[in-house]
Amino acid sequence: MSELHNLCHFEKRPITIEEYVDPIKAYLKQGIPATYTVEEAYNYEHNISEEDSKFAGNTTPMHLICENVPLDCTEDEKNVVLEMMNQLWLNGAGWCLVNDKDETPGCILLRRGLHGSKYWDSCVDSGVRAEVLLRKLNDPNIEFLSDPEDEDMDVEIEDDIPELVTDEVNIKEEIEGKKEKSESKSDSVSELEDMYNGPAGATDTYLKTELEYKDGALITKDGSDGVMMQWEEELMKAGCDSLFKSIEDPKDINILNIGFGMGIIDTMIQKKNPTKHYICEAHPDVLKKLKKDGWYEKSNVVILEGKWQDTLPKLLTQGVFFDGIYYDTFSEHYEDMVEDLFDVIVGLLKPTGTFSFFNGLGADRLVCYEVYKKVVDLDLANYGLSVKFKEMNAPVTTLKENDGYDDSVWKEIKRAYWRCPVYYHPEASFM
Ligand SMILES: C[S@@+](CC[C@H](N)C(=O)[O-])C[C@H]1O[C@@H](n2cnc3c(N)ncnc32)[C@H](O)[C@@H]1O
């Protein structure tokens, strides 16, 4: 283990600037990367090449700090630890790198009961900065001015922005992370690649995939990807209530739901008898279900067949405005929301209207979920929308520790897209 790693064990107390921050600054200044792992240090000390390394994990100094920070720190000591973390973030420490237990630094804090602490906030804020910055780095409209002296520096920028599938994990980031760690872990990498390119990650593949309604869920027929599941009913109820929250004229209530799925939220919307209820749905098997169940015959229902990307822009030219818009699709990415959906939403929402969506962004890991809660907040603010989040309990049957039990909702499902104990229900309206 290197001296940098040793430092992150906090063996000396009290934790002071002189004992901890000054040395960490010095190591970083000497050129030791903030992401230098315990495994790399071991390999270096034992003369083992990267190819021969048997380690799959990335135990970075940030992981060690989160693992070892004493629980009985004084306020002064806490500030010193936060300053160590700052120095590491400033020098490129990774908020979402995982160690050999598949834990990010934030996950370690969570396990140690430090969720909501200043250390936790430090990880979340670093995640927000990284996500926003990566998006900028990949924006083709941004020009980078380089110093000719730096041109021979080997700076690599990722090809694409890490994307979140709107109701699932950041699959791409995970694939890349796992590849980086160990090519020998080919099973989990190919599993993730399947996921990213399969129906859960690629809309065109999804729309050609056969679906079935089975045991309180809508799933893909061959792969058992969960498209929609009954356990989300309470979350849909909160969504439906938000849509009727700020009605401009009770005699002219216009609601739009994007993504029918099992029709849970649409059934709730119908019970409130809006003047017009638009349903936008793209999948042929789901449209068949809508026909079979008589949705086309309902006098106040308008079905928009096809992808919202194609059907909603037409509404913009027809002078249709909504009191409430709900968005919950499958296999789409956060990019779809931020680059296209929000543009349409601001055009279709009445000035008093409310926009809500199924908030599953990064929901397979609490730290990612909280990072994206802030990212969404920032992005919606760019559109003049302010978002409030109501905290709700997610069912315990969605949590990992219940996977072995019969009532785990993921029993027959290929991939759990929800792992957080809390649901942040979003409600956005114009500022
Ligand atoms: C998770 S389900 C919606 C569940 C729904 N909120 C409910 O309460 O049952 C997602 C739905 O969005 C549909 N969908 C996916 N991509 C879409 C797109 N681009 N445009 C319209 N619908 C889409 C899917 O076919 C699926 O029916």
UniProtKB/TrEMBL annotation:
Skewed-composition ranges (Basic and acidic residues): 174-188
Annotated ranges, domain RMT2: 199-431
A GO CC term attached to the entry: nucleus
Keywords on record: Cytoplasm, Methyltransferase, Nucleus, S-adenosyl-L-methionine, Transferase
GO terms under biological process: methylation
Disordered: region residues: 174-197
Uppermost EC category: transferase
One Gene Ontology molecular-function label: protein arginine N5-methyltransferase activity
InterPro entries given in the database record: Arginine_N-MeTrfase_2 (IPR017408), RMT2/GAMT_Mtase (IPR051038), RMT2_dom (IPR026480), SAM-dependent_MTases_sf (IPR029063)
Keyword Magnesium annotated: no
EC number of this enzyme: 2.1.1.-
Designated name of the protein: Arginine N-methyltransferase 2
